[in-house]
Amino acid sequence: GTILGPRLWSLVVDPLLRTLEDHCREDVDGTLAIVSTFADDINFAVQGPRPDEVVARANRMLQFVAAWSRAEGVPIGMLSATWVGGDGGRWKTGDFEPLQCGALQCVPGTDTFRLLGAWFDAGFTFEYHVDRILSAANYALYTLCQLALMASEAKLRVLFQALVLERLLFAVEVWYPHTSAASRARLEDIHLRGCRLITGAVR
């Protein structure tokens, strides 16, 4: 966390974000890089055909962060790296050199990783993310079914929006465009069941 508050922090970190975004626009060895921020967290993701090229570009971006930290006198807190890719959707420890940054922790060999509330997989299908949010949404919908006989339609609508829709719509712009037709059908199904529950309709 930061003691500066969200607005002042935005002013302080703006030069770093501009530098990282300018670098992300460059085509470096066929790799792609993006930067995302939320509150006082800065995240960047790098995708490429070869682990060594991804590592090289990630190291370059970390050098920008380190240089900004020294210039502004802002100490870096926790840094972490999560890897997705390689054979079978995994990269083994020996496939790459550790990222060059003092406080960095490398976490190799993972099939999915979470970034700002969305679960990413190696193929960027977001199937795992859909599975997780539907599991939580189904549990919430089951709870609402128990209340259907004693709660009014207005109350059920509010509860459905808070407990189900909020889960389904969180960061939807990030993951929904990449989901499969089957995943979208599953999402629409739970929405339909919620509408039936609220209205009392059977068809």
Q: What does this protein look like?
A:
The chain is of the alpha+beta class and 203 residues long. It is built from six helices and six strands; from the N terminus they run αββαββββαααα. The protein has a two-stranded antiparallel sheet. A two-stranded parallel ribbon has the order 3-4. A hairpin with a 2-residue loop joins strand 1 and strand 2. The radius of gyration is 21 Å and the shape is elongated.
Give the secondary structure arrangement, pairings included.
Elements: H1 6-24, E1 32-38, E2 41-47, H2 51-72, E3 79-82, E4 104-107, E5 112-115, E6 118-121, H3 127-147, H4 153-169, H5 172-175, H6 181-199
Parallel strand pairs: 3-4
Antiparallel strand pairs: 1-2, 5-6
Helix pairs in contact: 1-2, 3-4, 3-6, 4-6
Brief write-up:
By secondary structure, the chain is of the alpha+beta class. 50% of the residues lie in helices and 15% in strands.
Structural class: alpha+beta
The percentage helix is 40-55%
Shape: elongated
Low-confidence stretches: 87-107
The counted number of beta strands is 6
- Assembly category: single chain
- Cross-sheet strand order for the largest sheet: 1-2
Termini distance? 49 Å
Share of β-strand residues: 5-15%
| Mean pLDDT over all positions | 77
Spatial extent as radius of gyration: 21 Å
Instruction: Give me the strand/helix succession.
Output: HEEHEEEEHHHH
- So how many helices? 6
Largest sheet: 2 strands, antiparallel
